[in-house]
Each structure stands twice: as structure tokens, then as C-alpha cells.
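Checklist before submission:
- one chain only
- standard amino acids only
- sequence pasted in full

Submission:
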Amino acid sequence: VLYHGTGEKYVAAIEREGLKAMTRLYVHLSTDEATATKVGQRHGKPVIFTVDARQMAADGYAFYLSVNGVWLTKEVPARYLGR
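Returned file contents:
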């Protein structure tokens, strides 16, 4: 399981459309909830999504580990998200 922190105002769109890279090359994911919470706080009241990375990988989605320990992927469809 990986985590994605965001602000409360983005929750409805994420639940509908999943996570998208938007202006970045990749969606950024963390290995722990604490880091995701810190990231989410930058956008207001934090909301943490869990990502079923194991199932995504089994379904053919690619993940990359950056040098600073952040996991990257092109998108996370809503069906792989939890809260």
C-alpha cells in the first residue's frame, strides 16, 4: 500500500477521476501515512488516500522509485483508491 495526501477540496474530483499527474510528470506517492499527511497539509485540511499499488502493478501499471524515496506513477484510477 502506498499513500497520497491532498487537501479536502480535491477529494470529490479524486474519487471520481482518480489521481492524475496534472502539471507534473507523475503522481507522487509515499510509503507512510505521516509523509502523506504532511503533503496534504500544504493544501488545507489533509485527506489521505491509500493506493492498492500491488493490484495496480499486477494490472500492468508501472511504478518508479525516485532518489528521494517518492514513488511515482503516471496515474491512479479511482478503483485503486481507498481512504
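Reviewer check: The chain is about 25% helix and 30% strand.
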